Amino acid sequence: MKAAPKYQPVALAKLYTLLASQQTSMNTQFAFEPILENIAMETAEASDVIRIEVKLFGKFEVAINDQAVNRWPSRKAKYLLAYLMYHHKRPQSRDVLIEKFWPHSTQESGRNSLNVAIHAIRKACKEVNPEHAYITYRNEYYHLDAELEIYTDVDHFQNSCAMARQMGELGDEEQMIEYLEHAREQCQEDFLEDNLYESWTSNIRAHCREKRLSILEQLSEYYSVHGELERSIDLYKAVLELDNCREDIHRRLMEVYLSVGKRTLAIRQFCQCREVLKEELGIEPEMETVQLFEQMKSQKKSDNFPT
Question: Which one has a higher pLDDT value, 44 or 95?
Answer without folding.
Answer: 95
